[in-house]
């Protein structure tokens, strides 16, 4: 099974951690460029990186056989155990599997399994074009397309989330750890960090490695800090809660706090502006740049 990823010289230490931690379960397909041109203090390096990633996913889909399953990964990933079996099991009946952003809601796009199908290709074409149109956060485009029902209704895409042991640090907001960790995605840092500086993420990875090896105190304390961090609660409410902009998420049950959406649009209309949503599960309101952030997917890699 192929695993595609890309990085530049700034992320070489993270790249080395990813490569050295994987256990030969994947055929690595690496794309290295000297400088991605990341935007300092912007989530994940900003729009240039979002568009580059979406294009690389489209290229990966074009390069594999019809029906072939592969993984696309960010470089802030550390393998802690066997993952391939989980990938094969979770994608058996769907086109796309993504990590959990929070235990109960949301996806992040740091570690993705996908099947090369017409639905998957149409989905990523939409993600690329919509990210380019709004000049905004790719992960918001992905979540809106999935939870609004657009991906299912327009593209026939079937999707799922990985089980908790394919762990992202954003899920530490619950204050709990899975019983077992097989993969770690460092998508949240409490301290503010630069897009081009991986040092905080490497420190997290060391802490997680120590936890798996039996030295549990450091990570348990860090999880407590994340659970009480105000920026995490604010991020969740803005992206997956009552202050979420964009289309209705019809895939959520009636009464769910995140289902209505449209917060920014309603606020703009009340102030005498124009509602900015786009129909059918696009990214929603005309996107303003996310503030410099340490919050998940307002990520730094």
Automatic annotation (TrEMBL):
Region feature (Disordered): 244-301
Compositionally biased intervals (Gly residues): 270-283
InterPro entries (alphabetical): Nucl-diP-sugar_transferase
Domain Nucleotide-diphospho-sugar transferase, residue spans: 55-170
Pfam families, per database record: Nucleotid_trans (PF03407)
Protein name in UniProt: Nucleotide-diphospho-sugar transferase domain-containing protein
Species whose genome carries this gene: Alexandrium monilatum
Taxonomy of the source species: Eukaryota, Sar, Alveolata, Dinophyceae, Gonyaulacales
């Amino acid at each position: 099974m192929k695993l595609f990823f890309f990085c530049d010289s700034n992320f070489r230490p993270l790249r080395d951690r990813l490569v050295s931690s994987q256990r030969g379960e994947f055929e690595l397909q690496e794309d290295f460029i000297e400088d991605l041109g990341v935007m300092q203090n912007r989530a994940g390096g900003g729009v240039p990186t979002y568009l580059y990633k979406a294009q690389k996913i489209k290229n990966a889909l074009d390069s594999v056989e019809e029906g072939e399953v592969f993984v696309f990964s960010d470089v802030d990933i550390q393998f802690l155990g066997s993952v391939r079996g989980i990938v094969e099991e979770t994608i058996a009946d769907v086109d796309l599997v993504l990590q959990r952003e929070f235990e109960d809601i949301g996806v992040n796009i740091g570690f993705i399994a996908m099947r090369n199908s017409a639905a998957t290709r149409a989905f990523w074409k939409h993600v690329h074009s919509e990210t380019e149109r709004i000049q905004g956060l790719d992960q918001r485009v992905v979540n809106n397309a999935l939870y609004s029902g657009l991906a299912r209704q327009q593209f026939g895409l079937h999707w799922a989330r990985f089980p908790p042991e394919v762990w992202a640090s954003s899920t530490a907001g619950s204050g709990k750890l899975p019983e077992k960790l097989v993969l770690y995605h460092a998508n949240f840092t409490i301290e503010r960090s630069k897009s081009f500086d991986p040092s905080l993420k490497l420190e997290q990875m060391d802490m997680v490695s120590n936890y798996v090896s039996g030295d549990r105190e450091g990570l348990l304390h860090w999880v407590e800090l994340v659970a009480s961090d105000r920026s995490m609660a604010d991020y969740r409410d803005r992206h997956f809660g009552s202050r979420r902009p964009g289309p209705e998420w019809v895939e959520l049950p009636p009464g769910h706090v995140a289902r209505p959406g449209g917060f920014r649009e309603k606020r703009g209309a009340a102030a005498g502006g124009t509602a900015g949503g786009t129909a059918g599960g696009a990214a929603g309101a005309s996107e303003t740049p996310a503030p410099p952030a340490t919050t998940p997917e307002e990520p730094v890699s």
